[in-house]
Amino acid sequence: MRGVPLEIACDESGSEGEKLIGGQTDVFAHAGVRLGIEDAAACLVELRRRIRSPAVEYKANHLLRTKHRRVLEWFLGPSGPVRGRAHVYLVDKKLLLANELRALVGPGVTPGDELLAAFNDVLRTRNRREPAAGSFFALVGDTAQLRAKVAGLRAAKVLDPLVPAILRAVARWSEDGEQVFLVHDEQPSLKGERLAEIEASPGLAGLKFVDSRTDPRVQVADFLVGVARRIAEDEVNGNGDAVLTTLLAPYVDSASLRD
Q: Percentage of the chain surpassing pLDDT 70?
């Protein structure tokens, strides 16, 4: 007889669907937190006590302000509320796009910015006669076989990291044989085949979408995923903070896609 499923609260940051180039973020992050409701609520109370902002709703940006650096270090640190009870899956969006491009046209291709942008556009284009499609094939060669492969990638929505991230969360938290129940921030894009793929994941006992403001566990996941994405993004862009990168390291999933 199976025991009670392990409840994991999840949230994401940096999700822009399949737009991996020219968007608002360079890194996608997805966090899972194993906290009870009471512990999560206590964490939020402590964050409010330390931050002392009059804001009604606290977000990761509060922790990322310079004046709250000590609070951020406490939150991520060994004596913080989530150490050992959370994990973060990170995706360097440009690297994801480059990997898919190399898989499509060959490992010898040089994924420059112009080619990556054209590749991203052709996979997101709804009207195949738009200039984006012509631009990509002009750069790599136009063959019926290549067009067929691109059509397959477009249909599979291979560039959106959200579903793979949720599947990885299930796999990560069910590694010891426990069934996992995910409590996830609302995601309107997850429906139809995409939702069915998640629900069919081995190890998943159930999935519930909630408004993050109604569940303190998801609010804690929101804090963690927001600061993790910013720390990782600064590192990708050459502005990394060695102390914060070190503090984040124990949370980072080994399956993350980054250099």
A: 96
**Which class is domain 6-93+160-251?**
alpha beta
What is the rounded CA–CA span in Å between residue 78 and residue 247? Answer: 8
Say what the pTM is.
Answer: 0.94
pLDDT tens column, 124-133: 866 445 555 6
Asked if 5 and 181 count as a contact pair (C-beta separation under 8 A), the reply is yes
Sign of CA dihedral 90, 93, 94, 98: positive
- Nearest to residue 151, comparing CAs of 163, 130, 133? 133
pLDDT at 134 over 90: no
Given its phi and psi angles, is residue 71 left (phi above 0), alpha (psi -120 to 50 degrees) or beta? alpha
Cα–Cα dist 169/151, whole Å:
29
What is the Cα–Cα distance from 135 to 214, expressed in whole angstroms? 46
Q: What are the residue boundaries of the structural domains of the chain, listed by start?
A: 6-93+160-251, 94-156
How many whole angstroms separate alpha carbon 75 and alpha carbon 43? 9
Q: Helix, strand or coil for residue 169?
A: helix
